[in-house]
Amino acid sequence: MTVQISFTLNDRPTTVDVEPATLVAELLREQLNLTGTHIGCDTSQCGACVVHLDGLPVKSCTLLAPALDGATLLTIEGLRSEPGSNRMHPMQEAFREHHGLQCGFCTPGMLMTAVALATEKPTLTEADVRHGLEGNICRCTGYQNIVVSVMAGAAAMNAAKGE
Amino acid sequence: MGNVIGIGASPKRKEDQRFLTGRGNYVSDIKRPGMTAGVFVRSPHGHAILRGVDKSAALASPGVIAVLTGDDVKTDGLGSLPCGWGISDAKGVPMKEPPFPMLAQGKVRFVGDMVAFVIADTPEQANAAAELLTVDYEVLPSVVGVLEAVRPGAPQLFDDVPNNICCDWELGDKAAVETAFRKAAHVAKLSLVNNRLIGNPMEPRAAIAEYEPGTDRFTLWTTSQFPHVVRFLMGALVLNIPQHKLRVVAPDVGGGFGVKQFHYGEEAVITWAAKRVMRPIKWVASRSEGYVSDRHGRDHVTEAELALDETGKFLAFRVNTLANMGGYLSTFGPNIPTNLYGPLLGGVYTTPAIYCNVKVVFTNTVPVDAYRGAGRPEATFVLERIVDVAASEMGIDRVEIRRRNMIPKEAYPYQTPVLVQYDSGDPMGCLDGALIAADVKNFGIRKAASASKGKFRGLGYSTYVEACGLAPSRFAGRLGARGGLYESATVRVHPTGQVTVMIGTHNHGQGHETTFAQIVSEKLGVSFENVDIVFGDTDRVQFGMGTYGSRSLVVGGAALSKATDKVVAKGKKIAAHLLEASEVDIQFEAGNFSVAGTDRIKSFEEIAGAAYVPHNYPLEVLEPGLEEQAYYDPVNFTYPGGCHIAEVEVDPETGTVTLVNYTAVDDVGTVINPMIVEGQLHGGIVQGVGQALFESAVYDEGSGQLLSGSLMDYCMPRADHMPMMKVATHSTLCTHTPMGVKGCGEVGTIGSPAAVINAVVDALSHLGVTHVDMPATPNRIWRLLQNASLPVAAE
Ligand code: FES
Ligand code: FES
């Protein structure tokens, strides 16, 4: 038994039939072939699966697909400098600039959390960033360059807003 | 020519674009037509006789295609998982090596041991069917700790391994050590535990296998650090598949840390099963499944004694260790607590006599194997802890006692009493640099400030040396290696001068696509953008031993450097012909071949073009084409080293340890890309800090249950556990690798646990605390403070 849901996915209207027990992370990866959203755990601890639901960061491994009906979803594949652009988001640029990634597995979730943090609070301190990344685990980087990247990305987002 | 980016520059990484935009290609992202889903049924018991498996209900469940067990493996006459190292005791008696079946046969020996493989159309159906499998176990008592396992009367894992001892291994001159101990003015003693760890790369393990009847070829996509070794071990020794009929691909891999450098039973089962069901099969582990099946790390219990003269000079060091192997021997298992541990017990000191005994022990736990640092962090921890104990007992300053015993820079090359000879190093230089960077001078002021808030502040030092790039093959062979330890690289120059490199190492976060491209860009003078690095696919890369033990740049980079030299040599021959000069007069510089002392010149692109369009070409003496391959077998290990200083604050009210400052000065030889090296150091340090403060795999004795079986119960370091670290390099060049490189992937993990624990002990030393086992969790510290039964307020 499936249910039909309609939502906006990365700026595109999308309608799919899903099993009600499908998790958003599975829907994205298996049904919609958007494999940028990663699954790193089964206990909602790692944050590899973070996406934006109506502008807020959520762990897509803990959300059932029917909850998407009528909502707006942004995944790593839709993250851009501005809608429709091919340019990377300033946060993505900052991660590249400051070596905020190694194996890249935690990176999509980190970026989605980072963008949400920077959107919520215009000036982030180091402590804000470290605290804000509490739900995202990275085993490779030791976090230092991620923290530097998030602060730089937030500053760039602010500067862009001011333009 | 163009944008040459060479050694010492920090270009942004080539690999980042795909990872930043969600376009990476990890095993779990791959789909194949007609793909089915596989689920492993694992033992819920630590130790049990496997009486039988009733498949009928599972087979009748919707969507189920097959259910395979150990009996099917037996019927098909398949081998068991091979161990890559065969060690021996002092008398030359080889280790006990019981078979490690790919699906359990007769007995299960740890929680997570694989009993059956269920294949269905969808993962949901496979999971549902797995629930319906009835497995008949006769549960036996489990033994999980090494001390318990060697006691008389302990549960025995294998009938022919008495006392669960796989090997009683030793190294060093026992008699010389005993003599030195008799002459000692002071003997420091320490008992310690090196806690069992779980690697936790963020990408869980996964595999897809496919069989094509038309070509009789198998393909296995797997989250592996060494696809060629998997092809070799699995094809030749487990499944009897000819190497040319087997392709193993390790695409983007989300972190390894050692955990993905073994040949796992899952890989063999899924490949075998793909032919039986004639459809592709995918298996993706959950994180919790990884906890009971990814190989664990460390797990030592050690008694150490250091003999000193009255001035604090080390006379001899004696170490007795029980090392946990878990339920079976994994690929490198027995090599880690022996060959990679004993020879590093000399550290950066001039200790003249060392003896080490290691009992390698089976228990009812997940097999233990190499995990970032592998053996070297364990050696460093023992040594750097006991040096602190000796200093405090003898009333000598901790830095001073280290200085008195350090190998001076001029004494290199330095032969240790335990096999290894260090080619280069400057421990004193690293120490001096770290003391300044850590502002040790003003530590007293910071300690007083902490005290005024009721907190205890401590400073901890750790100096270390490590051995990277296991080498050379013939030496490793004498120590028990059953494989070679070289690396291969092919440099393919295209007719237009762009370059594709095929290399046998594997990139899973280390930045090879960038670092190796820098080497080629510098050596051939071609644009950085015009170099691509190919790895991880046995159909595209000739051969390779993969990435582990910080060997990629040290051994793989050397092979690459050698191959580029061959390209230049052939280019010179072509240029000599085109420029009508003698070959010896051709020089190659900045991407141009020229005749010395003239303005006659040919660009790299022109030479590449002539090689592939050989109209004016000496075909009688020179082959067309410009592609060269090199294998490099190292002449020695490389020996990175350094000094780490940790500063902690302990809250006596809660027992919480906060790491407040961290400084590292590491000697990693030539630095190709400083940005990437710094990133490796950061990551390594936090992995070691994780061991020191947070992480521990805990088993229940008796039942053999893993109590820390998910990310809910196993504490991984998070961003707010760490301060900003200060890392720097102080490089002496390796004297025998082509570019002077030493390796940097593990140094952080080797230096940090001892630095952090030494800092914690220092913070609590006024309460009479002389040792704290890892991890120094709030609970452990709080209990210690209660037992110290001293007023908890700071002075
Ligand atoms: S996969 Fe969602 S939190 Fe780990
Ligand atoms: S970059 Fe590998 S887990 Fe974060």
UniProtKB/TrEMBL annotation, chain A:
GO terms for molecular function: 2 iron, 2 sulfur cluster binding; metal ion binding; oxidoreductase activity. PROSITE patterns: 2FE2S_FER_2. Keywords: 2Fe-2S, Iron, Iron-sulfur, Metal-binding, Oxidoreductase. SUPFAM superfamilies: 2Fe-2S ferredoxin-like, CO dehydrogenase ISP C-domain like. InterPro entries: 2Fe-2S-bd, 2Fe-2S-bd_dom_sf, 2Fe-2S_ferredoxin-like_sf, 2Fe-2S_ferredoxin-type, Beta-grasp_dom_sf, Diverse_Oxidoreductases. Residues 3-79 form the 2Fe-2S ferredoxin-type domain. Pfam families: Fer2, Fer2_2. PANTHER family: OXIDOREDUCTASE WITH IRON-SULFUR SUBUNIT. This is (2Fe-2S)-binding protein.
Automatic annotation (TrEMBL), chain B:
Pfam families: Ald_Xan_dh_C, MoCoBD_1, MoCoBD_2. This is Xanthine dehydrogenase family protein molybdopterin-binding subunit. InterPro entries: Ald_Oxase/Xan_DH_a/b, Ald_Oxase/Xan_DH_a/b_sf, Ald_Oxase/xanthine_DH-like, AldOxase/xan_DH_MoCoBD1, AldOxase/xan_DH_MoCoBD2, AldOxase/xan_DH_Mopterin-bd_sf. Keywords: Molybdenum, Oxidoreductase. Residues 21-141 form the Aldehyde oxidase/xanthine dehydrogenase a/b hammerhead domain. It comes from the Bacteria. One of its GO terms (molecular function) is oxidoreductase activity. PANTHER family: ALDEHYDE OXIDASE 1-RELATED, XANTHINE DEHYDROGENASE.
